[in-house]
Write a structure and sequence with these properties.
By secondary structure, the protein is mostly beta strands. The chain is built from one helix and 17 strands. It has two domains: 105 residues, Thrombin, subunit H, CATH 2.40.10.480; 95 residues, Thrombin, subunit H, CATH 2.40.10.480. A five-stranded mixed sheet has the order 1-2-4-5-3, with no helix packed on it. It has a four-stranded antiparallel sheet with strand order 6-7-8-9, with no helix packed on it. β16 and β17 form a beta hairpin. The mean pLDDT is 93.
Length: 203
């Protein structure tokens, strides 16, 4: 994905074929973050910053955990910083140097998406929902009866004008305010089939 910010062109990409110390990589990044053995990495996200078409900084992150890909809700750019989610981590880098400011693990499994909320951020994780500050401090976290994945076509996570609506794996519905307080819980309604007695069938 390509984003214009001030006088910079910022490209955020998946680079799943990147290999450490290889001259055959599609892009030669100036910085590589790989805290674990690279063979454990199942997500590799790159950031490239250019000014007037000339690259001035670049990096790639190798991470492991619940695999993620790049989309428009996987990173946020403002205040001369870029925050990017990869697996179950959030990384924050300065713009344009891409110096690391902080990084931290949040959801135990994976962070599906990353959103701006007022002056903070909301992380939609597989197991928990987090509201964090721009410095990575957790303001609140919320978990339900099951994971935040739904196979019945309901949107597991949505931010509305003044609330957050959630559906878990079992289709239980939760409504939170922006302070993480549960306003409403609606358990899944299971339709039970009324069976006729044998004498009603043959009567």
């Amino acid at each position: 994905m390509n984003v214009s910010y001030k006088n910079f062109e910022i490209e955020v990409i998946d680079d799943e074929n990147h290999t450490l110390n290889s001259t055959k990589n599609l892009h030669q990044y100036k910085t590589v973050y790989c805290e674990e053995n690279e063979f454990r990495s199942n997500s590799k996200h790159g950031i490239i910053i250019k000014a007037n078409g000339i690259e001035i900084s670049s990096l790639i992150i190798h991470e492991f955990g619940g695999a993620t890909t790049i989309s428009d809700d996987s990173f946020i750019i403002e205040d001369d910083k870029i925050w990017i989610r990869i697996c179950n981590k959030i990384y924050c880098f300065s713009i344009p140097t891409l110096g690391l400011i902080w990084h931290k693990e949040f959801d135990f499994a994976t962070n599906f998406s990353f959103h701006k909320l007022e002056e903070d951020f909301i992380i939609y994780g597989e197991i928990e929902i987090f509201r964090i500050t721009k410095n990575g401090e957790i303001l609140w976290r919320f978990s339900g009866r099951d994971i935040w994945v739904n196979l019945e076509g309901k949107n597991p996570f949505s931010i509305e004008s003044d609330k957050i609506r959630l559906f878990d794996f079992e289709s239980n519905e939760y409504v939170l305010d922006f302070n993480g307080k549960e306003l409403e819980f609606i358990p899944r309604k299971i339709k039970t089939e009324i069976k006729k007695k044998w004498w009603q069938i043959f009567g």
